[in-house]
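Entries read sequence, tokenised fold; example below:

***
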Amino acid sequence: MTEPSEQAKPADAALMAADAARAAEAPLLAVEGVSVRLGGREVLHDVSFAVGAGQFTGLIGSNGAGKTTLLRVILGLTAADSGTVRLAAANGAGHHTGQRARVGYVPQKFAFDSDMPMRARDLVALGIDAQRLGIALPSRRRRERVEQMLAAVDALAFADTRIGSLSGGEQQRVLIAHALISRPQLLLLDEPLANLDLASAQGVVALLARICAEQGIAVLISAHEMNPLLPVLDRIVYLAHGRAASGTTQEVVRADVLSRLYGRHVDVLHVHGRVLVVAGAGDDSDLEGHEGGVSGGSHSGGAEVVL
């Protein structure tokens, strides 16, 4: 029997070549050979991918795969042990301008006290002055920008509600508006769909896809479940054991590519419009399980659902 690592090498080489060709087209973000060790453990190993202007990219992996660490490296909050991250702004023709791309960020966890006297519009307004010192003075221009961002994320109806009283989906819309008001060219989101119900998650994904298309903003969104994102993804960066495969979903979400990434044989199944990545339950290696709503290893056919 052919080992997964041997069988996937030609596909991986073609995938890396295709990704390098796309990276040459003046990407906003280029991650090249990034490795990170934390607490004596290698969290990321030789991760490379690129994100172009207006592209919607999913950063997919289980809990502990290294998604948040990778976003922190891109933001400059965690130092890489090796490799480089380039954030280069591009003009309408796709050529670099020599300036650093502006980046917006929506963090993974943001707990708001229900008694905190801050309205949704107040939080959005704080994004205007994130890079400035001193107290911002009210102005009609500021108010108009806040209204525009609230309208862009369909949040005008609860703009005057205390942020701690909003639902999870409503808070995510406000946080996205807060990140967008500084007019970023790249928007990073760390697990924005976590703990949202299905309807709220679908609403946030549709909102991000619309903003990406209408404003030409590149989106890099992390998630442990790719199925809610599949209808809108241009590209995917799939993380497992700190290693990454990147490209289109058709290039990456394949048995040969993911088998090499995990270091063991896995299958990719398409069931009722969903994608499942499964591995034999008899294999005792430490493949992470992270398919939304499915856990355990006793599935029919001796398969364990892992994504």
Summary: Residues 1-8, 91-95, 282-306 have pLDDT under 50 and may be disordered.
